[in-house]
Specification:
five-stranded parallel β-sheet; 37% strand; mainly beta; disordered N terminus; 374 residues; 4 helices
Length: 374
């Protein structure tokens, strides 16, 4: 009995000694150290240690709490994983990090929330608050991996509205879609972004986008104001403003638009274009793109509305002159009939192998992007 008692006392002393050592190590530089034991051999192992200064690294602690994202560390090699709408919102806390969307998300589906109280906040009143601002732009990357986000709603009187308010230089947003958006803002308003100075690729959106207010208003179906690159992307739906400038894909384009399209209606108090409202006096370039829909306003064009620069930076880009109404080409874009717009031979130089498709039963017979095949 005495030997057993002594052995038990020895084991208890040994455990207390290890605990004391762990506490001392924390005082010397370890933070958030968790000490656990292998019960068979009473061998201490330290996990979750953050190393500081000259302390030897064991493992990294996660940079965020488990609730903020579904995994990852925000690096390009191991991006934060998004499986809930709260994860999507948390991108605003780390605007320079990298993200991947792991599943479709729907603002009207309670199962896509961690806290269902957020459903009311994001589907009524002012709705969603955009990620990235003019003061702190989103400069990371967001890869939706060909998943969609449905029923995004914004109803705000400020500018820079969209899923992203401001996409900055060096940022990349790609491979996704927005379904049934309802966006109302002021200047710099679009479904995906109010302002883009990065790269948008393989992105589609559908729904309605509107802006109200006085002064210069930049409104686009996908992007309000583009200073970057938009490629292999589209918007389908209604785009409108009570003032100017308004475009089916982009309100203003001072960057590059390639292999894109817009369908639906575009309406502005002043300047409106089926694809782009204004090319900023000829600064923007557009290639292998088209518009098919009605256009109304004072200074309007089937492809591009603002015709002050009379630029020729429009390569093999077309618009449906039957649906555009009174909109002219303004020397920007090639007018074709609805029948011609649904004929492959119309589109000179287009890549119908890797980028575009055209079939009578898809996209009302107009050319479609590979993204829509999902």
């Amino acid at each position: 009995m005495i030997k057993k008692a002594n052995r038990s006392l020895f084991l208890l002393t040994l455990i207390l000694s290890f605990l004391l050592l762990a506490g001392t190590a924390g005082a010397k530089g370890y933070s958030n150290a968790i000490t656990c034991f292998d019960l068979e051999g009473l061998t201490p192992t330290v996990t979750g240690v953050v190393y500081q200064e000259d302390i030897t690294k064991v493992t990294h602690m996660p940079m965020t709490t488990p609730e903020e994202f579904a995994g990852g560390d925000g690096s390009a090699e191991n991006p934060y994983r998004i499986t809930k709408l709260e994860h999507l919102s948390n991108m605003r806390n780390y605007p320079d990090k990298h993200y991947v969307l792991m599943k479709d998300l729907d603002f009207n589906d309670e199962s896509d929330y961690m806290d269902t109280a957020n459903k009311s906040a994001w589907t009524s009143g002012e709705g969603w608050a955009p990620v990235g601002t003019s003061g702190e732009a989103f400069t990371g990357s967001f890869d939706a991996r060909f998943h969609s986000i449905s029923n995004l709603m914004i109803n705000r009187t400020a500018g820079y509205q969209g899923l992203f308010g401001y996409i900055g230089s060096g940022a990349e947003v790609k491979n996704g879609g927005l379904k049934n958006v309802s966006i109302t803002g002021r200047s710099y308003t679009g479904s995906l972004a109010g302002y883009n100075n990065g790269v948008i690729e393989n992105w589609g959106a559908q729904g309605s986008v509107r802006s109200d207010g006085s002064g210069v208003i930049f409104t686009g179906g996908l992007v309000g104001y583009n200073y970057g690159v938009i490629e292999k992307s589209y918007f389908s739906g209604d785009v409108s403003t009570n003032h100017n400038v308004c475009g089916g894909l982009a309100g203003v384009n001072r960057g590059e638009i390639s292999n894109c399209y817009a369908t639906g209606s575009v309406s502005a108090g002043q300047i409106a274009g089926g694809l782009v409202g204004s090319d900023a006096d000829g600064e923007g370039e557009t290639e292998y793109s088209y518009a098919a829909g009605s256009v109304s306003g004072e200074d309007i064009g089937g492809l591009v509305g603002d015709n002050r620069a009379m630029s020729n930076k429009y390569t093999n880009s077309y618009y449906d002159k039957n649906t555009a109404g009174t909109a002219s080409d303004n020397n920007k874009g090639i007018p074709r009939t609805t029948s011609e717009m649904k004929t492959r031979s119309t589109y000179s130089g287009w890549d119908f192998v890797k980028i575009w498709g055209i079939k009578p039963g898809i996209n009302s017979g107009y050319p479609y992007l590979g993204l829509t095949r999902k």
